Automatic annotation (TrEMBL):
Protein name in UniProt: Uncharacterized protein
TM stretches of this protein: 21-46, 83-104
The keyword Membrane is annotated on this UniProt entry: yes
Top-level lineage group: Bacteria
Keywords from the named record: Membrane, Transmembrane, Transmembrane helix
Amino acid sequence: PRVRRSLRDRTAGARRRTAGAIATAISVVTTLVVLILAVHIVFVAFEANTANDLVRWFGDRATDLCWQFKDVFQPADHKTEVAVNYGLAALVYLVVGRVLVGLVRRLG
């Protein structure tokens, strides 16, 4: 015989699935942001051609995503400045993303 689940069980299951989907979305977005910042750091470190559309695209996106972290540290060397500041932004995004994923999963 088929056993029907209670409304509470179905609601809890739906809540867990929704929380899981939201947590996955947060994780994917966080990973993409960190990847964009990391690729920009590599492009700057190895002096990629800034006239290249791909290099420019990553640079523009990374600059937008870096917002308040662009000039936290101001070393004399541009490569070091980008590595430290954009790396700091990537680390903050990663930590905040992981904390949010944990909270969403716990609430679900």
